[in-house]
């Protein structure tokens, strides 16, 4: 996540230089999302607590569920639900943009088919007792992806969609019949690590696709790109 944050901040400052309103908005969003990713990275390592070995202040220990120097464990349930719902909703929004042919907004590449399926699979790895609304929302998006592939007669996308659905079905069966065994091994940190990898490669794609020609960038900012 830290790498994604650094790339976004650097890309926003270095690559977006024209001082038009759309470019200023895009640059601001890049920097803000970059700071958000850096904050998330700091939270995940408890701001270096394990690295530097400093103690959690008593005031924070009293309200932190895991006695760690971070914010998200103060109400771990809220943050975990927010992440799971956020990933599932992101896959839905990304699919809507993809299926309607919107490939760029203000010159920024939207998630492609593989990114959407990756987000869907992010919702699979979670605690065994949490096969809930985000999981089913992601499953619905997966079915939409398959229908889209059938409609477009795209065998490659159809195969990827069916494989994703099969993995979701397998995990669901494991959760139903092997919940006790899975609980000890299922951890949100794995899902967050997978999500970090997806966002890193997506951020790289966004930055690679930004036009080098600033005039072209200005044209892309004027409308939705196909």
In brief:
The chain contains 11 helices and 3 strands; from the N terminus they run αααααββααααααβ. With 226 residues, the chain is an all-alpha fold.
Question: Could you explain the architecture of this structure?
Answer:
- The chain is built from eleven helices and three strands; from the N terminus they run αααααββααααααβ.
- The chain has helices at residues 2-15, 21-44, 49-52, 58-63, 76-99, 113-122, 133-152, 155-177, 179-183, 188-209, 214-220; strands at 104-105, 108-109, 224-225.
- Strand 1 and strand 2 form a beta hairpin.
- It is flat, with a radius of gyration of 20 Å.
- The protein has a domain at 77-186.
- The chain has 226 residues and is an all-alpha fold.
Topology:
Layout: H1 2-15, H2 21-44, H3 49-52, H4 58-63, H5 76-99, E1 104-105, E2 108-109, H6 113-122, H7 133-152, H8 155-177, H9 179-183, H10 188-209, H11 214-220, E3 224-225
Antiparallel strand pairs: 1-2, 1-3
Instruction: Please give the number of β-strands.
Output: 3
Helix content: over 70%
Low-confidence stretches: 222-226
Give the H and E element order: HHHHHEEHHHHHHE
| Spatial sequence of strands, sheet with the most strands | 2-1-3
From the alpha-carbon coordinates, what is the Rg to the nearest angstrom? 20 Å
Largest sheet: 3 strands, antiparallel
Number of helices: 11
Strand content: under 5%
Q: What distance separates the N and C termini?
A: 29 Å
Quick check: average pLDDT?
Answer: 82
- How does the helix and strand content classify structurally? mainly alpha
């Amino acid at each position: 996540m830290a790498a994604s944050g650094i790339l976004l901040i650097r890309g926003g400052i270095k690559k977006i230089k024209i001082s038009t309103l759309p470019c200023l908005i895009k640059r601001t969003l890049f920097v803000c999302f970059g700071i958000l990713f850096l904050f998330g990275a700091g939270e995940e390592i408890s701001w270096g607590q394990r690295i530097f070995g400093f103690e959690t202040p008593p005031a924070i220990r009293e309200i932190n569920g895991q006695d760690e120097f971070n914010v998200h464990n103060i109400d771990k349930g809220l943050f975990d639900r927010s992440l799971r719902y956020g990933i599932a909703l992101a896959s839905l929004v990304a699919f809507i943009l993809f299926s309607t042919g919107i490939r760029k907004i203000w010159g920024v590449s939207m998630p492609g088919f593989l990114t959407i399926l990756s987000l869907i699979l992010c919702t699979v790895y979670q605690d065994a007792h949490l096969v809930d609304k985000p999981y089913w929302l992601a499953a619905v998006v997966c079915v939409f992806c398959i229908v889209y592939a059938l409609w477009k007669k795209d065998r490659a996308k159809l195969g990827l969609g069916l494989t994703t659905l099969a993995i979701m079905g397998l995990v669901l069966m494991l959760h139903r019949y092997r919940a006790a065994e899975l609980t000890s091994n299922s951890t949100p940190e794995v899902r967050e690590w997978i999500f970090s990898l997806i966002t890193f490669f997506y951020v790289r794609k966004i930055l690679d696709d930004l036009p080098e020609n600033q005039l072209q960038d200005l044209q892309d900012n004027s409308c939705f790109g196909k």
